[in-house]
Amino acid sequence: xxxxxxxxxxxxxxxxxxxxxxxxxxxxxxxxxxxxxxxxxxxxxxxxxxxxxxxxxxxxxxxxxxxxxxxxxxxxxxxxxxxxxxxxxxxxxxxxxxxxxxxxxxxxxxxxxxxxxxxxxxxxxxxxxxxxxxxxxxxxxxxxxxxxxxxxxxxxxxxxxxxxxxxxxxxxxxxxxxxxxxxxxxxxxxxxxxxxxxxxxxxxxxxxxxxxxxxxxxxxxx
Length: 222
Hints:
Elements: H1 3-46, H2 51-66, H3 69-77, H4 89-115, H5 118-126, H6 131-161, H7 173-184, H8 187-221
Helix pairs in contact: 1-2, 1-4, 1-7, 1-8, 2-4, 3-4, 4-6, 5-6, 6-8, 7-8
């Protein structure tokens, strides 16, 4: 590696880290938090005895899972301008990622709820609980422990997927790396540096996920 390349690498690290902390991570956290609310509501709708709710929720999941995330972002950011709806890149990215997390997460939540033994429902009913009370007090707390590993993986995947937000002008880490490449003409060096930072973020998240899983396992065993 030449002295020029070393200088470029060192000069690139700080802007990339700043973009990751100031833009990539907040987008990930906000989108995942909102997405989980959508996921739980969608899962409950799909398990509902009210068929219109099941139909709407199923259609939403079908559309989101059946179309590319990048296409969804383009429709939200660029397409909606043709009907008079103009969104900032952050808002458009948040909506797109929230819908994606909500659709995929709902299947995880739904599967986790359905994995709870039928006897749990019967025990709740024998105590005089309504279906809603059984969900809140018995079923969902147990399902939450089951769903932590797959939802943790979804969170880590979302962090990487935020790189797609650069395509709608959001100044996240990958977008910043593209701007640096445009001035330095060192794509391999700069993109590799961005990849290392993504890897660092994901490693930390994986470590936190493992800690959470161990604590939940101890709680479940007790």
